[in-house]
Specification:
Length: 474
């Protein structure tokens, strides 16, 4: 599939049409969706009507936006008015939101065509998309392996050329890790740069929406479209969307890039080798590579798995069988609430609710949740300190290439370790990007990660572009 930049250019210029681009996308979905289980819902009629509106407006000489006619996939925890939105949970089966997420409104206003909602780990809790109530998504490069998670459906949609771009959410690595395992670009923006209004919440102080794309330029363009202040989100930064696409080719000459030991330790040898090759490419492009250690990063996993479940416990309390979603009737309200949540939530969601409720309970709050917040502060301070010495950090995105289905489902800790390199950035609220860089075992993609201080997205895209041009070659 052609890039989003090319599609929008051709649709605006009359060399193609939104309806033709949608037809190509739907044909690609029809060819592989049964095999890969990428989309939970396809909005054929809504997408066709939207494509025709774009073409009609262009025929009148109107400016339809930066994403004119570009098909886009939406993770199914993003509300879209009137379109089934489940967060891959039985408890929301059949729910149609009465409003759209701000990011959805923005991509549609920019001329994009939303083709459907992609699969995910239930309520975005997982690292493999095996926790979906509607079956797992499969990796387009090898259907016997996972696509990563929780945004596995969105990553797979782009990797399988079903859509050139997609939106996902990243709470502890849920954009970057599947991007790495599927061989696409994935960006977690600065916390607050992109509105969370209309995102079904997992952990509100960590969640952030971001782009998937097959190349750096498309990811930069999509982030430009969705970023910027939103009065409906109290955590939204009070500033306009940054200029990103125009900085993609800025390069890294004169930049100091930190090769961070804690962001590669424990990774497979082939992943470590890819990070070392990436460092060599950046050095050859004019950057200074600084080897450094940030011991605080090792604390991220344990802090995250107290903070995130605690916030999930609070956020998921609203699914009570009373206001919306699935309801299982019983003899009284308490029994109905218990029966509804027992039937509606999957095992991983229940595990995290129980962990979070325990961490917040009387007598344990200070020992667990309170301590985790202190560790988070240490993490934030460590990032601030290191960014006084370097402009960008370099490390692995995931410890390995995509693993086989079932390889980690019986060992939650092994699954949680899939996010060991991505979690620190979420705790700090800073941006990070995963870019494909080489191949590993089974000819599966490897992703390397670039991290920067708040609002450094333009620098990260520029560094990612240097690696993209190098193509992962040694």
């Amino acid at each position: 599939m052609r890039s989003a930049v090319e599609i929008a250019r051709d649709v605006r210029g009359g060399q193609s049409s939104a309806e033709a681009e949608l037809a190509r996308s739907l044909a690609a979905i029809a060819a592989r969706n049964d095999e890969l289980n990428v989309f939970l819902h396809l909005d054929h009629q809504g997408a066709l009507e939207a494509a025709r509106r774009v073409d009609e407006r262009l025929a009148k000489g109107e400016d339809v936006g930066a994403l004119a006619g570009v098909p886009i996939a939406l993770k199914d925890n993003l509300c879209q008015i009137g379109v089934p939105t489940t967060a891959a949970s039985k408890i929301l089966s059949g729910w149609r939101p009465p409003y759209s997420a701000t990011v959805v409104e923005r991509v549609l206003a920019a001329g994009a065509i939303a083709v459907g909602k992609t699969n995910l780990d239930e309520f975005a809790m997982g690292s493999s998309t095996e926790n979906s109530a509607f079956g797992p998504t499969r990796n387009p490069h090898d259907p016997s392996r996972v696509p990563g998670g929780s945004s596995g459906g969105s990553a797979a949609a782009v990797a399988a050329d079903m859509t050139p771009i997609a939106l996902g959410s990243d709470t502890g690595g849920s954009i970057r890790q599947p991007a790495a395992l599927c061989g696409v670009v994935g960006m977690k923006p600065t916390y607050g740069l992109v509105s969370r209004y209309g995102l079904i919440a997992f952990a509100s102080s960590l969640d952030q929406i971001g782009p998937f794309a097959n190349n750096v330029s498309d990811a930069a363009l999509l982030l430009e479209v969705i970023a910027g202040h939103d009065p409906w989100d109290s955590t939204s930064l009070p500033e306009d969307s940054p200029s990103l696409l125009s900085h993609v080719d800025d390069g890294v000459a004169g930049k100091r890039i930190g090769l961070t030991r804690e962001l590669v330790d424990g990774a497979d040898d082939e992943v470590v080798a890819a990070v070392e090759r990436a460092a060599a490419v950046l050095r050859a492009a004019g950057a200074t590579i600084v080897e450094l250690s940030v011991p605080e990063f090792r604390l991220g996993l344990s802090a995250y798995y107290l903070i995130a479940p605690a916030e999930a416990s609070s956020n998921l309390a609203r699914y009570d069988g009373v206001r919306y979603g699935v309801r299982v009737d019983a003899e009284d309200v308490a029994a109905m609430n218990e029966a509804t949540r027992t039937a509606g939530f999957g095992a991983e969601v229940k595990r995290r609710i129980m962990l979070g409720t325990y961490a917040l309970s009387a007598g344990y709050y200070d020992a667990y949740y309170g301590q985790a917040l202190k560790v988070r502060t240490l993490m934030i301070d460590a990032f601030k300190r290191v960014y006084q010495d370097v402009d960008v950090l370099l490390g692995a995105t995931a410890p390995s290439v995509a693993f086989s289905f079932g390889a980690k489902t019986d060992n939650p800790l092994a699954m949680y370790l899939s996010d060991v390199f991505t979690i620190p950035t979420n705790l700090a609220g800073d941006p990070a990007i995963s870019v494909p860089f080489g191949r590993g075992e089974g000819d599966m993609p490897i992703g390397v990660q670039l991290l920067g201080p708040g609002r450094s997205e333009a620098e990260l895209f520029a560094a990612a572009r240097v690696l993209e041009v190098a193509g992962g070659a040694s």
